[in-house]
UniProtKB/TrEMBL annotation:
InterPro entries named among the record's database cross-references: Acid_resist_chaperone_HdeD, DUF308_memb
Designated name of the protein: DUF308 domain-containing protein
Swiss-Prot/TrEMBL keywords: Membrane, Transmembrane, Transmembrane helix
Highest rank taxon of the organism: Bacteria
Pfam families per the UniProt record, alphabetical: DUF308
Lineage, opening ranks: Bacteria, Bacillati, Actinomycetota, Actinomycetes, Micromonosporales
Transmembrane segments: 7-27, 33-55, 62-85, 91-111, 123-142, 148-170
GO CC terms of this entry: plasma membrane
PANTHER family in alphabetical order: PROTEIN HDED
């Protein structure tokens, strides 16, 4: 099952990186499209984390429970983004920031409880998500352009981290 998780993580990392690149290349995207894409990303990541941890025995029980709870919360935040994609920029920024904080905390908890290779990348992923979320919360008036830049940069960074975690896991199991 751990090998399956690494493949799921690799696909999630590639999709996250691709989404970040699309956000860079397509900056004139409307709030509706951006809100949908970020919401979809949070929903997919939250569901994937929850499903994998439900069926994975490679982590201590407490870490799995925390990861599952945060995965569910991340998925719920993604659904909130999808339900109100035309909402205000401030609301979208808040929802995305909360999702990134939850996902960052989950990654850090899993990295601490895991004996797997790639723990440093998991810690970087978690810390990067939390730092980006704090930046969005501290500067809510930065506007959509800055949000797109920060969001696209964050997605590229997080996608690369997920890819490295997955590749490290697949290499260690080979």
């Amino acid at each position: 099952m751990a090998r399956t998780w690494h493949w799921v993580g690799l696909v999630a990392g590639l999709l996250t990186l691709a989404l970040g690149i699309v956000a860079f290349v397509w900056p004139e995207a409307t709030l509706r499209v951006v809100g949908f894409l970020f919401g979809l990303n949070l929903l997919v990541v939250g569901v994937a984390r929850t499903v994998v941890l439900l069926f994975s025995s490679g982590y201590p029980t407490l870490n799995r429970v925390v990861g599952i709870v945060f995965g569910v919360f991340v998925a719920i935040v993604g659904i909130l983004c999808l339900r109100n994609v035309a909402g205000s920029v401030a609301l979208l920024l808040l929802i995305v920031a909360i999702g990134w904080i939850l996902d960052g905390i989950a990654e850090i908890v899993l990295a601490i409880g895991s004996g797997e290779s790639g723990r440093g990348w998991r810690l970087a992923f978690g810390a990067g998500a939390i730092v980006a979320a704090i930046a969005l919360l501290v500067w809510p008036g930065i506007g959509l352009t800055a949000f797109l830049f920060i969001g696209a940069t964050t997605l590229c960074f997080l996608g690369i981290c997920l890819i490295f975690v997955a590749v490290a896991g697949l290499r260690s199991r080979a």
